[in-house]
């Protein structure tokens, strides 16, 4: 088989995967366009539903809920934006199914069982966050914004004669497109914030984060959540506190879920005999170090003293050293004699007995 044949055989699966991905994307786009067309036909009722928070606040103030178009094409673009949002919501189950059917064949059975709950929980948490933004945060935000209106009966008078001058009124006459943009911003931002438990739990299951690590960076998370609340919500203290409490609660829930994932993983590894406690490892290392310290130096050192106990050269050296040491007699005088062989002038050995 030639090298070109090897390349063609190895590239065939990749081409098949790309072709399958193309088909899945085409089906997803078609489903999105169908959902968009359906929502375009009912764009007005959907827009009226989205204006409910604003109309409720205006009604509580005794005002009419009036939105205006500041450009001729604004009404068309409002309908398009409503259709985009509604079409994505309608087509999301089908799009998620196409994503799952593309990824699932490459996963093991255990991985499928681990990933599928997150795929189901993600849209649920997004809708929960969007509902929280629409029914709780948005009314509070618009109540705060509309508090800056001033009416003619209580506002400042125009310059001139107070008897003839008309009172100044600064009332809300909002653009439909601007209102829709701000409302969608709230919905999407809170929907993404509510993905925090799903994301951190999935990362914990993959071993990328741990409950202990998330707990150690809690103070940094608090600062980040405060910054997020300041950027996403209007400059209203009540709304910012609500968002901070909710997102921080989700962070603590994430730590709890990651801890549960770690406990299940530990229990599974213990059942398989593959889990080793760090305490046990430290005790084993301490015992090994203690046993090592109690071992004689000669047993650890291959060149210790006991290795040369039977060496005749060292024995002769020890005897010679003992003979050369200075010794004193009982009178405290130094004999000054050495055991070396010396001969006198007559050629006799002094060490021989007389």
Describe what this molecule looks like in 3D:
The model is unreliable at 1-11, 294-302 and 325-354 (pLDDT under 50). With 354 residues, the chain is mainly α. The longest helix has 39 residues, at 3-41. The chain has helices spanning 3-41, 43-50, 52-60, 74-103, 109-145, 176-193, 196-205, 211-216, 218-232, 237-271, 278-294, 297-300, 312-324; strands spanning 67-68, 174-175. Strands 1-2 form a two-stranded parallel ribbon.
Q: What share of the residues does DSSP label as strand, in percent?
A: under 5%
What gross morphology would you assign? flat
Please tell me how large the radius of gyration is.
43 Å
Biggest sheet strand order reads 1-2
| Uncertain residue ranges | 1-11, 294-302, 325-354
Counting DSSP H or I runs of 4 or more residues, the number of helices is 13
Number of E strands:
2
Helix content: 55-70%
Class from secondary-structure proportions: mainly alpha
Please write the string of helix (H) and strand (E) elements: HHHEHHEHHHHHHHH
Largest sheet: 2 strands, parallel
Straight-line distance between termini: 104 Å
């Amino acid at each position: 088989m030639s090298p070109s044949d090897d390349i063609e055989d190895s590239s065939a699966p990749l081409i098949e995967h790309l072709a399958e991905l193309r088909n899945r994307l085409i089906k997803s786009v078609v489903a999105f366009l169908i959902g968009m067309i359906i929502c375009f036909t009912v764009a007005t009722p959907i827009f009226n539903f989205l204006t409910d928070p604003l109309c409720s606040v205006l009604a509580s103030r005794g005002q009419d809920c009036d939105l205006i178009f500041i450009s001729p094409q604004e009404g068309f673009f409002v309908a398009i934006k409503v259709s985009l949002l509604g079409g994505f919501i309608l087509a999301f189950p089908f799009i998620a199914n196409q994503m799952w059917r593309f990824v699932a064949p490459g996963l093991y059975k255990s991985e499928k069982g681990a990933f599928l709950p997150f795929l189901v929980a993600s849209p649920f948490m997004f809708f929960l966050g969007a509902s929280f933004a629409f029914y709780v945060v948005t009314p509070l935000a618009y109540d705060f914004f509309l508090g800056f209106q001033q009416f003619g009966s209580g506002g400042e008078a125009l310059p001139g004669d107070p008897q003839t001058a008309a009172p100044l009124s600064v009332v809300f006459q909002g653009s439909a497109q601007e209102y829709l943009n701000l409302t969608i911003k709230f919905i999407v931002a809170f929907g993404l914030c509510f993905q925090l438990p799903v994301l951190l739990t999935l990362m914990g299951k993959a071993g990328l984060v741990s409950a202990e690590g998330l707990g150690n960076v809690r103070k940094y998370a608090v600062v980040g959540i405060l910054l997020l609340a300041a950027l996403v919500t209007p400059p209203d203290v009540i709304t910012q506190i609500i968002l901070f409490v909710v997102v921080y609660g989700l962070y603590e829930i994430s730590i709890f879920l990651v801890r549960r994932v770690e406990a299940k993983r530990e229990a599974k590894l213990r059942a398989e005999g593959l889990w080793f406690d760090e305490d046990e490892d430290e005790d084993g290392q301490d015992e090994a170090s203690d046993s090592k310290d109690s071992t004689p130096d000669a047993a650890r050192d291959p060149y210790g003293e006991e290795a040369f106990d039977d060496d005749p050269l060292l024995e002769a050296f020890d005897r010679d050293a003992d003979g050369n040491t200075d010794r004193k007699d009982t009178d405290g005088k130094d004999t000054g004699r050495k055991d070396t062989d010396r001969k006198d002038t007559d050629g006799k050995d002094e060490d021989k007995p007389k």
